Structures are given as C-alpha cells and as structure tokens.
Amino acid sequence: MAGTGCTSPRQVCPESPSYFFHTTDQNHPWVEIDLERKVRFSGVRVENRRDCCEERAVPLVVEAADESRKFRVLAQRDKSFDSWLASFPPTEARYVRVRILRPSLLHLGRVRVLR
After folding, report:
1. Which of 39, 53, 70, 71 has the largest count of CB atoms under 10 Å?
2. Domain range holding 69?
3. Taking a C-beta distance cutoff of 8 angstroms, is the pair 96, 108 a contact?
4. Any idea what the CATH number is for the domain that residue 89 is in?
C-alpha cells in the first residue's frame, strides 16, 4: 500500500475521524496487518469509511499469508457496505490483507482480525 494513515493501533485518529488510512488512486490497493506471529482466526470485521464513498471499497477481498507471503483469498464482498463481517473456516496466518480487486482509492474506518 502506498498511502497515508494514522499510527494509532486502535485505528482511531483525530485528524481523520471517518477513516484510519487512505491510498492514492491505485491498481488493486490494499492494507496489510502484520500479526507478528502465526495466529489462528476465523473472521475479519471491516468498517467502511463513514462519511462518503462506500462504493470505492468493492469488490473487496480478505487474504492471508504465512511467512512465505503467498496470499490466499479467505472471503470476498461484491456489494457496498457500512460494516462487513468476513467469516471463514479457522485459518492460521501471520499476515492479513484487505484488497480491492480493481483500480480505486482505498480508505477504511477500521479492520479487525477476530479469533
């Protein structure tokens, strides 16, 4: 991801209350979370930007990878959303990535990995 965002681990930032990061207009923009070790989880909650432009975040995929960095798709969303709970069978991974499957800007309100 080439973009800007706040450094708050809670993803709540006074300078951008509607989103915690954004990219420029890119081909397949993404945001990645490094869990720092392999973790077992079965869902990702994605909160869309709150003030506008919800359609920019679709189609959206949740992907995961281990140290090899070979990402695999866990879930996909094809319709606009305010909040999306991406549920899937339990998986283990170190990296979680949320990526748009087309050229767009990416800006989300929050991304949470759920055990």
Report:
1. 71
2. 3-114
3. no
4. 2.60.120.260
- In whole angstroms, how far apart are CA 99 and each of 15, 35, 95? 24, 17, 13
Task: Report, in angstroms and rounded to the nearest whole number, the Rg of the chain calculated over CA atoms.
Answer: 13
pTM of the model: 0.85
* Overall number of domains in the chain: 1
Tens-binned pLDDT, residue by residue, of the chain (115 aa) = 445 555 655 565 666 656 667 788 999 999 999 999 999 999 999 999 888 888 989 999 999 999 999 999 999 999 999 999 999 999 999 999 999 999 999 988 889 999 8
Tell me which residue of 21, 23, 18, 22 sits closest to 8, measured CA to CA.
21
| Residue 54 DSSP one-character state | G
The owner of tokens 């949470």 is: 112
Cβ pair 25, 103 in contact under 8 A:
yes
